[in-house]
Amino acid sequence: MATDAGTPGTAIPRFPDGFLWGVSTSAHQIEGAADEREASVWDAFTAEPGRVKDGSTAAVACDHYHRYREDVALLAGLGVDAYRFSVSWPRVNSPGGLDFYDRLVDELCAAGVRPVPTLFHWDLPARLDWLERDTAARFAEYVSVVAGRLGDRVTRWITLNEPAEHTLLGHALGVHAPGRQLLFDALPVAHHQLLAHGLAVRALRAAGAGDIGIANSHGPIWPASPEQADVEAADFYDVLLNRLFAEPLLLGEYPSGLGELMPGGAAGVESDLEIIAEPVDWYGINYYAPTRVGAPQGTEIRFGGLTLPAELPFSVREIEGRPVTDFGWPVVPEGLTELLTGFRDRYGERLPPVFITENGCSYEGLEDQDRIAYLDGHIRALHRALAAGVDVRGYFVWSLLDNFEWAEGYARRFGLVHVDYRTLVRTPKASYAWFRDVLRAQR
Ligand code: IFM
Fold first, then answer.
1. Cβ–Cβ contacts within 10 Å for residue 404, how many?
2. Among 38-52, 61-75, 306-320, whose mean pLDDT is lowest?
3. Per-domain boundaries in the chain
4. CATH superfamily of this structure's domain 20-442
5. Which of 31, 162, 334, 338 is catalytic?
6. Cis omega (within 30 of 0) on the bond before 309?
7. Confidence class of residue 2 from pLDDT cuts 50, 70 and 90?
8. Percent of the chain beyond pLDDT 90?
9. Which among 392, 397, 403 has a CA at the least distance from the CA of 340?
10. How many CB atoms sit inside 10 A of residue 265's CB?
11. Which residue's alpha carbon is nearest to atom 4 within ligand 1?
12. Signed CA dihedral, 161, 399, 1, 411: sign only
């Protein structure tokens, strides 16, 4: 399939020397071995009937905990420079938990794959709560422990994964763990995660670590029409998804009006913002698709597997005329160029070098030509952003393996490698061979 960002089959343009190519996963989605760690909020959530569409849990998932050597061999075969995985806080709290990451990091280093751990990817220990400010301090303590153990071999760190989605899906809409439907009362969860990020940056630096970033989810927001009401609703959504999580970090301030809604009010969060804006070495962006937003329509909205309540001050509309993934997400490669050039224009010198820490799509099948077309189009779109002067240093595909896709269970397959959840056999898909060849051609 040809996309307007390029044609699969023609060579992908050359990226600069030193550009980092990788793949991503997260602990809860692949590790399994749930009985060998303390409980996370996701264990409690998935145990509740109806929370996960296929009724599944991540108790076994891909059993990566026991099969990590096989998975590292898959990474080596793919030829990636780096592997982004996450460290499970509940596992680190459990006997032998850190030993696992020690072994994984050793195995990666021996295979010539650089480990890039994310320190929080949604699997909060069940006894903690992001509504509590103290969780940020607990996070920094945990980060110090992990850095103390792995810091001799890990040179690049990611503090948090997608605090926006964790706030929105987990605490505002209740479709992810811990399942709260607080709508705008979920804002303290955003603030406490951002504070946790800043404290973690300080803890990592104190442990001698450099090269620190975050993986934030971002996308262009398209107004449903040029009508003022649609444009205003789109701007508001842009604040919630993009600016609320970028600006405290990059500018040391909340978008206008939001500081007042945070715990302690605008004056109360001022000193926290100094911590949150602790400089990072690079900025990670997870990109999947743009969102088209219009004025509220007074009815529930079904969108990408979500049901959004009618009382929200915006409505999410379909992007028409585009292919969609199995998840129903539109395939819009040029949205990545738009996002990156838009960020560069908006934040200028304040934007550090960027890494795309996630990009990918869910499709069934081993002959996954649709995934190849998606990745091909997005890698070309990324190259266009580079050519337009955006300082992008790396790109990670989501995901190495098919895995537990949160509230969707095992129904959505994002992997370059197929996993048979009955036998746990891994089978590289056509996209694995394609990405391997792309990487070879870049060497
Ligand atoms: O699987 C998720 C991942 O955990 C966070 N980013 C989006 C992916 C696809 O939904």
1. 25
2. 306-320
3. 20-442
4. Glycosidases (3.20.20.80)
5. 162
6. no
7. very low
8. 93
9. 392
10. 11
11. 26
12. negative
Annotated catalytic residue within 31, 38, 247, 358: 358
CA-nearest residue, atom 9 of ligand 1: 405
Task: Let me know how many helices (H) and strands (E) the chain has, helices first.
Answer: 14, 15
Supply the DSSP string of 227-273, one letter for each residue: SHHHHHHHHHHHIIIIIHHHHHHHTSSPSTTTGGGSTTHHHHHHHHH
What CA–CA distance (Å, rounded) separates 111 from 99? 18
Give 24 Cα–ligand 1 centroid separation in angstroms. 10
Express each pLDDT in 104-119 by its tens digit.
999 999 999 999 999 9
- pTM here is 0.96
Atom of ligand 1 nearest to the CA of 405: 1
The two beta strands, 283-286 and 426-428, are unpaired
* Residue pointed to by tokens 């108790």: 59
What atom of ligand 1 comes closest to residue 217's alpha carbon? 6
Atom of ligand 1 nearest to the CA of 286: 6
C-alpha 123 – ligand 1 centre gap (Å): 13
- Known catalytic membership, residue 358: yes
- The residues, ordered by sequence, that sit 6+ positions from 36 with a Cβ below 8 Å of its Cβ are 65, 91, 94, 96, 97
In the residue annotation, 311 being an active-site residue is answered as: no
Ligand 1 pocket residues where CB is under 6 Å: 26, 29, 162, 286, 358, 398, 405, 414
